[in-house]
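Hi support team,

I'm opening this ticket because the web form for multi-chain structure prediction keeps timing out on my end. I have pasted the exact lines I submitted so you can reproduce it. The total is 550 residues across two entries, so I didn't expect it to be a heavy job. Is there a limit I'm missing, or should I split the entries? Thanks in advance, R.K.
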Amino acid sequence: MTSRERVLAVFAGQTPDTVPIVPVVDGYFAPKVIGRRNDECFIEGGCIAAALAAAMEKFGYDGAVVEPGLGPHPSVLGCPVEIEGQDVPVVVDTIIEGPEDLEKIKLPDPWADGKMEPVKQLVEAAGKDHFIIGSVRSPFEYAATVRGLVGFMTDFYKDPDFVHALIEAVAPATQTVGMALVEAGVDALVMKDSFASSSMISPDHYREFAFPAEKSAIGALSGVSGSVPVILHICRNSAPIIGEMAATGAAALELDSLVDLAQAREAAGKGVILKGNIDAMSVIEKGTREDVEAAVKQAIDAAREGGRFILSTGDSVPLDAPGENMAALVEFGRKYGAY
Amino acid sequence: MTDLMDKFESAIIAGDSDLSADLADEIVCEKTATPDDIFHHLSDAMEAVGSKYETGEYFIPEMLRSAEAVEHAMKVLEPYLFGQERTQSGVIVMGTVKGDIHNIGKNIIVSALRASGYEVQDLGVNVSTEKFINAVKDTNADILMLSAFTTSTKPALLDIIAELKEQGLRDKVKVVSGGASHSLEFAREVGVDAFARDVKSTLAVCRELLA
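Hello R.K., no limit was hit. The queue was backed up. Here is the completed structure from your submission:
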C-alpha cells in the first residue's frame, strides 16, 4: 500500500496493512527540515509546501497537514497578523469589542492573493502517494480570534447572546476555507477547535457554545458534493467531551496525550476513527528513544482494534523536536502497527 | 466587619462583579478595614479561585469572571487605599515574552497580584527584551515577572536575563518566570530567581521574594 492508500483504507472502514502514521507536522517544525526559517515559510507559499513534503520524505510518515497561506496582507477575518521574525503567525490586534463591531469581520477569500498556493503545491508534489490534510479553524476558534480570548471567555457570563451571535457571524469563514481546501485537492480536513478543550472551558460551556458550531460546520462541509472526511482536533484534555465530539459527525477525532485512548474508544464508539495521541512536547521534543517507543506501543495497543486508528502526535510537533525522535516515532509505529 | 469581608471574599470567588463593587463600597463607607485587611481577603479570594481551577471546578471563564470582580472592586477601593500604610507592597513588571501570545494566565495573575496589593505594570504579550528592560528601569521594579507558556520561549527568557546583566540590573530586580510548561529544571536553565505555575504559587513566591 502507498501511504495515501493506507490512510484512505482507514477512512473507508477497511483495515490497512499497518497503522498509518500522520503526526501533526505543520509550519512549526517542518521549515527547519529544509533549512529555512519559520517566518520565511509562512510568507513564501512554495517554502511551506517544500518543507512539508521534505519532512514526509525524510521521516517516512504517511501524511501532512497544510493550511492556506496568509497572502501579502496577512490577516485573520480582518485582524492584522505579524509574520516576520515570528515562529508562528501572531494576531497582533483584535477587532471585536461588542455587537456593534460585527460588521468589521472580513470573511476570507481563500483563492485571492495566492493563498491556496501552498495547498495546491503540496498536493501536486506529494499528494499522489501521501495523504494531505487541509487545516481549517472552527467557528468557535475564529470567534475567539477576532474577539481576543480574554474578552471572548469573559463574554460567556457577561453576554452569552453576543457569543452566539459572534460565532454565527464567523461560521461562513469555516465553510469557505474548508470548501477551498477540498477544491484544492486535499484528502481530508482537520477542524481545529483547541479553545474548546476541557483544559480551557467547562464541558457545559463546550456544549453551549462550541459543540453546536462544530456540528453545524462539519455537517455543512460533509454535505457538499465531493466532500472529504473531517477530523475534529481538540488538544490538551478533551476526555469529558469525547461523546459529544463523536456526535458532531466528524469522521475522526484527533486527541492529545491527556486522553486515555481506550476510554476514548468507549466514549466515542467503534464507528469513529481515533487519531493520536503521542505527547508532542514531553515525548517527541523532550523524551528519549525509549520514551517514544513506550508511548507508541501504548497508543497502538489501546486503539488499533478494528483498524480505526491513525498514529499521530496529539498536537503540533514543536520547533525544537529532535529529528531522531521523529524517526523513532515512525520506526516504532511500523514495528508495532502491522495488522 | 468580619461578616462583610467574608461576603466580599465570597463575591469575588463567585465572580459577581456588581456585588463585589457594592460590598467594596460598604467597606469604604465603614472605614474600619485597613489596606492590609482588604488585600489579605482579596488575595485569599484569588487563591481560592486558583484552587478551584486546580481541582477542575473552575475553568478559564470562571477565573476571568473572578478577575473581573477584582477589577470592579479595586475601582471602588483604590481611592480609599491610596496613600494609606500597608505592610505588603511592591512593584511588578509583567508580560508575556517575545514569540508568545498567551495572555489568559497572565491576565489572571495580574488581577491576583493587584488584589494582593502589588502595583503591576502589565506590558501585554509578545513583549520585546527592550520593552521589559525599559519598564524595569522606569518603574524601579522589585520583580520582573515573565509569562512564558511554551518551552520554545527559552531563547527569549535567556535574552532578557543576559540584558539585565549587561545593564547592571540583574541584582536589582528579582526575576520570576511562569507558565504551564514550566519546571524547576527549566527555571534553572534560564537562570530566573523563581518560577510559578499558578495563582497560588505566584502569590507565595512574591511574598517570599519581597519579605
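A quick check on our side: DSSP finds nine helices and five strands in chain B. Let us know if the file doesn't open in your viewer.
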